[in-house]
Design a protein that fits this description.
Elements (H helix, E strand, L loop, with lengths): L2 H11 L34 H10 L2 E8 L2 E7 L9 E2 L4 H14 L10 H4 L8 H5 L3 H6 L32 H15 L3 H13 L3 E6 L2 E6 L1 H12 L3 E2 L2 E2 L4 H7 L15 E2 L4 E2 L8 E2 L11 E5 L3 E6 L4 E7 L9 H14 L15 E3 L6 E5 L5 E8 L4 E3 L6 E3 L6 E9 L4 E8 L2
Antiparallel strand pairs: 1-2, 1-13, 3-5, 4-5, 6-7, 8-11, 9-10, 11-12, 12-13, 14-15, 15-18, 16-17, 16-19, 19-20
Length: 433
Amino acid sequence: MMRIPLLLAVLFFGAGAQAQQLYFPAPQANSAWETVDPSALGWCTDQEQALHDFLASSNTKAFIVLKDGRIALEWYFGTFTTDSAWYWASAGKSLTAFLVGRAQQEGSLDINAPASTYLGAGWTSLTPAQEEAITVRHQLTMTSGLDDSGDLDCTDPACLTYLAEPGTRWSYHNAPYTLLHSVLESATGLGSFTFLFTRLTVPTGINGLFLPVDDNIVFFSGARSMARFGLLMQGGGAWDGNPILSDVAYYDAMITPSQSLNEAYGYLWWLNGQESFMLPGLQFVFNGPAMTNAPMDVYAALGKNGQIINVSPSTGLVVVRMGNLPGDIFVPNLYNDQIWQHLNALMCTGTNVEVTPGATPRFAPNPAFDLVRVLDTEVDILEAWAIGTDGRRHALPHDRDAIQVDGLAPGLYQIGLRCTDGMRLSGRLVVER
């Protein structure tokens, strides 16, 4: 897979014809950041207050919405300002995953190597053979097999005992994740701050600190650094044409299902639009996507008390929320879904492809191989796209009443259409070869 097509898909197809204008502020953290008026986007601005009130009622500190890189909404609550810092909690896991990928890109580490390569023998209480079987990839995917029935944050060897073979059990276990920082430091010879500063802060303006909090390593920053990280991910790991993470295979693996146990989990990223999902503390599989109101292609960094970064390539949106949501909720997927419910109202038609109830076109042929005719509509197609079961969005070549699907891999797709009368249609199509 080549780098250029991936970047083109992000930069030019994103959320309709507007996404070719993907914008990046200058890498200096205090640089000017272009804005876009929500009314100019055709949003229903009379719904802004309801969203604002909802956020205020849930102890929000900062909320930012980027549209194709430009700031559409930026709200601060109470005494919190653009210069204030707050913790990312577990949303920082996704940032760590990015740094691990950058270290592998530089040849400093191999995620398929045993974690003991970097942590040294005896980092657990397992037998040497059992310990050797745990790789860095298992740390990234929450599949180490270590016992999670005790203190989830304790990284002492005495706390890290055997429960299952690595890769056979998914569990949201903080300790193996926290030790990724030790893996990074051992592999690169640099502390977390130095590695982040030289690889991310200088070229992108993502500014903050990893600090020890109890037994955890927690990232602190302002809300705009959170938004910059979301924009970096929306840009395919590149910042204004400057590749920061050019390892395409690793980037893709971060935001696609990393194992079959929890389909909604990549490399420390949460994935919407999957057929099922798991949550922390439960060995139970829920059917359906983790969020029904969010775009199916959203991948999210989620942390305790509602620290959120949403990235939706199909809509060109990055949505950031910082705050102190009441309750001890480690992964706020339901709260995040409520945010999207309000955003859908603000954007008038919502962000999911199925935005016109009952308007389901028929495709012929279905299953399809190359050219597909769209039946039951008398208006012309202005835009067409396909979202696969992995949540990825693919722009489709089209004419007034047909779409071209020969560029799609075989599989089931949700086809979205935007037509000349403003209507959006959605239907399912099977592609075969």
